[in-house]
Write a structure and sequence with these properties.
Layout (H helix, E strand, L loop, with lengths): L1 H16 L20 H11 L21 E2 L4 H11 L6 E3 L16 E3 L4 H15 L3 E7 L2 H16 L3 E8 L5 H10 L14 E4 L5 H11 L11 E4 L22 E6 L7 H6 L12 H9 L1 E2 L9 E2 L20 H27 L15 H8 L3 E3 L5 E3 L10 E8 L5 E9 L9 E3 L27 E5 L8 E5 L4 E2 L9 E2 L4 E3 L6 E3 L1 E3 L6 H26 L4 H4 L3 H16 L1 H4 L5 H35 L12 H25 L3 E5 L6 E7 L3 H24 L10 H23 L4 H32 L6 H6 L1
């Protein structure tokens, strides 16, 4: 591109005009075109090393060119050819384009400097770009040569590691002579249909020339062979440029509207626009390129030509009128690199001059004779160069002799007159923290017109939305998959998840399996209706028991109260009152203390009640038997036997509870699995066997009481509570026998409610069966509460 030549001339001119920067030194340059062909590039490089006007490399036969460094080239192949040659002489080389050796070995070029960061950064940036837009099914385009092979060897594993697949690989012809090139290109038209894949809307192009020219020719010739046009998002590395060949000057570039590329960061040096305005065919006699450029750009001839279709150039044509594909007035990235390369050389020379002036004084005006500087010495100063250029950017090389800089993400907006605008839509900073290298402004991006300014999709199939996971298709790449709904109890909360996942322990999936919902804590609360009802019943029966106890205390000297052992009656009523209060330990949020107390308290007080009932029943039997003449049972009738029965029956249960507390005490627990939407806050009984031992012992006391009372039910009514006890024990046993299966078949707070209901029912059975008939007589039929009546009965 002619602008690179102008950038070189501009930088040299600026340096030479600054008399303070390199005093008494004038920089010069010599430009040779290699035509992007290997043997021409070798010849051009060797020509730089020859004596003036003679192609005799490595011999000093005449006045020799004073070469201190080489700048070039734009593409890897040219740079590598030059490096292989000038490196023999340890001449530093500054390449202003990307440098990616075909075999990946950079150590073979110890004197090569890159005015652009490592190309691998761009590859990683492209991967982040694809991830940013969700493009996982892309096309790859590379030139059919060693460097294209190297590109594919690097990019394909990188895409795979980042869950991106390539749908196709299109190899375009390498640069060669025109006749071979056109034949090769026409053969590649057979590959054109792969570009028609509608699922592939993003194509990554290796930017090494001649990729742009190849792709442009392919899209230009396609309609001539009745092939339909394509609308893609072309993504390219920094080598991509819209420079046109002379034959392409009038070709449409609308196919590339909305393309995205990583371009070399550039600014506009002061004075460059004014310098461009001075460029005319006659501006210098030493420019061997301007005549060719001027005639091709303006399609005219500077000399009288035999070709009648060409007009004569005036020499005053305006560069502003040229399409951007032929010439851009603003300094672009690679021209900016050429300019920085020249200044890097100048600063290295300045460093040599400063160092030498400090340590050496020469006789001839005390100045350094630059013609005797050895290239290896210049290399030593060049690699440590650091300066700020006139545009305000810092120029510095890293340890690998690569420029420390970033890339601009450029969106190419084209117009029908073959002009275009480079819109900066982001930035790639290789030095940024991992994952933060790429910054994009999506709102500024213009897409190809076929997408109607809607974000294009480039995926093998539609996304798997939350609630589904990806399922591999047999025989297909991993980017092509089916969508399977998440199994029961699992969710996916993002698109295209590889597998569904379980919710945290305290959460459960919603019905769409795309979100976890926190489980609510579930326990029998005082605030809910069931808890309120049970609390009211608990208080009611407790108060009722207290009232009955008060009634019996008031009428303690009446025959019906005295008839069946007042002490046992009081003990039974007090124990029943505590039985009715036990449910209060079961209602509310389970705590450590309540879990330890509630089953123990329930078991002990109920055992006390049942022991008292058993004592009352045996008292009735013994009293009847003692009334028979000559009976020896009279000695057993008395408080000693009843107290022993009550205490022994209760202490056995206390012993069972103590063993329970020592071996495996109850504790607060959370059951997160039994109910889907709730976390059951409960008391873990610690040892289920000990819990059933407590219930079993209560059942044993109840059965013994029932058996004794059953056989004593027909004794004379005057002394007999047996039939009431029999009925109460029948209720008690029925309640607790039905409790076990019901308790085991319920969960959470309803399990607690079943136990509370059983406590209340069994306690109410005892209270009502034994004491309500007596209360009836005491309160409503006091006439029956006399000794004569009881004896008569």
């Amino acid at each position: 591109m002619y602008q690179h030549i102008l950038a070189l001339a501009f930088a040299v001119k600026q340096i030479n005009e600054d008399t303070k920067f390199l005093p008494n030194i004038t920089l010069g340059f010599h430009i040779i075109n290699g035509y992007y062909i290997a043997k021409m590039t070798y010849k051009a490089t060797l020509n730089l090393l020859c004596t003036q006007h003679r192609f005799v490399p490595n011999f000093i036969c005449d006045s020799q060119k004073k070469i201190i460094t080489v700048i070039g080239g734009l593409v890897t192949e040219v740079s590598a050819i030059m490096a292989n040659t000038v490196g023999i002489y340890k001449i530093p080389q500054l390449t202003y384009g990307s440098f990616s050796p075909a075999h990946g070995d950079r150590t073979a070029f110890p004197f090569l400097y890159q005015m652009i960061p490592n190309e691998d950064y761009q590859y990683r940036g492209v991967v982040q770009l694809l991830h940013h837009f969700g493009w996982t099914w892309v096309g790859l385009l590379a030139v059919d040569d060693d460097f294209g092979d190297r590109f594919l060897q690097v990019i394909i594993p990188l895409l795979t590691q980042n869950n991106i697949c390539y749908a196709f690989i299109l190899r375009t012809p390498k640069r060669t002579y025109v006749d071979e090139y056109l034949n090769f290109l026409l053969r590649h038209l057979d590959d054109y249909p792969v570009l028609m894949d509608r699922k592939v809307n993003a194509c990554f192009v290796n930017g090494e020339p001649p990729s742009w020219h190849n792709l442009r020719m392919l899209l230009f010739y396609a309609p001539l062979f009745s092939l339909p046009p394509v609308g893609k998002v072309w993504i390219a590395t920094s080598q991509w440029d819209f420079e046109s060949l002379s034959v392409q000057r009038l070709w449409d570039i609308q196919n590339f509207h909305g393309a995205i590329s990583f371009t070399v960061h550039s600014n506009q040096p002061l004075g460059f626009q004014n310098f461009i305005d001075t460029v005319k065919p006659s501006w210098t006699n030493n420019d061997g390129f301007i005549q060719n450029f001027w005639e091709q750009a303006f399609n005219c001839s500077l000399k009288i030509s035999s070709v009648k279709s060409k007009t004569l150039c005036t020499g005053e044509e305006n560069l502003e009128n040229l399409p951007h594909t032929l010439f851009e007035r603003n300094m672009i990235g690679h021209s900016y690199n050429v300019c920085n390369a020249v200044y890097a050389v100048a600063h290295a020379l300045h460093a040599i001059h400063t160092s030498s002036s400090r340590h050496r004084r020469l006789l001839e005006g005390e100045r350094l004779k630059f013609q005797i500087i050895q290239p290896w010495l210049f290399h030593h100063f060049l690699r440590s160069v650091i300066f700020n250029n006139s545009a305000g950017d810092t120029v510095k090389f890293d340890e690998n002799r690569e420029l420390i800089a970033g890339f601009d993400v450029t969106n190419w907006v084209t117009f029908p007159n073959n002009s275009f605008v480079r819109v900066k839509v982001g930035r790639l900073e290789p030095q940024a923290p991992p994952g933060k290298e790429l910054a994009l402004n999506d709102d500024q991006i213009v897409w190809h017109r076929s997408f109607n300014q809607v974000l294009p999709l480039s995926v093998c199939n539609d996304n798997c939305y939350p609630g589904y996971s990806r399922k591999k298709k047999e025989g297909e790449k991993f980017c092509c998959y089916d969508c399977a709904p998440c199994p029961e109890g699992m969710i996916s909360n993002q698109k295209d998840m590889d597998f569904c996942m379980k919710c945290p322990e305290d959460q459960y999936p919603n019905k769409d399996n795309n979100q976890c919902i926190p489980q609510i804590l579930s326990y029998l609360s005082y605030k809910e209706p069931l808890g309120i009802i049970l609390t009211v019943l608990t208080i009611f029966f407790s108060v009722t028991t207290v009232l009955i106890l008060g009634t019996f205390r008031k009428y303690q000297d009446t025959p019906i109260v005295k008839a069946n052992n007042r002490t046992l009656t009081y003990i039974l009523l007090v124990s029943l009152m505590y039985c009715f209060l036990c449910p209060l330990f079961f209602i509310g949020h389970p705590g450590k203390v309540t879990c330890l107390i509630r089953q123990m308290a329930f078991g002990i007080v109920f055992s006390l009640s049942l022991s008292t009932v058993l004592a009352k029943t045996i008292t009735v039997v013994l009293a009847f038997m003692a009334t028979k003449p000559g009976s020896g049972m009279r000695k057993w009738v008395g408080k000693r036997l009843t107290n022993s029965l009550v205490l022994s029956g209760s202490f056995i249960q206390v012993g069972i509870c103590m063993v329970w507390l020592i071996t495996s005490p109850p504790f607060p627990d959370k059951d997160m699995n039994s109910l889907k939407e709730e976390i059951i806050v409960e008391c873990n009984e610690g040892s289920a066997s000990m819990f059933y031992c407590v219930l079993g012992y209560m059942g044993f006391l109840a059965i013994v009481s029932f058996t004794v009372a059953f056989f004593a039910r027909k004794l004379p009514d005057s002394f007999n509570e047996a039939k009431f006890i029999t009925f109460s024990m029948l209720i008690f046993c029925s309640v607790w026998l039905s409790f076990v299966p019901t308790y085991l078949s319920t969960k959470g707070k309803y399990m607690v409610a079943v136990e509370i209901f059983s406590i209340l029912c069994s306690g109410a059975g005892l209270l009502c069966s034994i004491f309500f008939p007596k209360c009836y007589i005491i309160i409503l039929r006091p006439d029956l509460n006399n000794k004569d009546h009881l004896i008569r009965r």
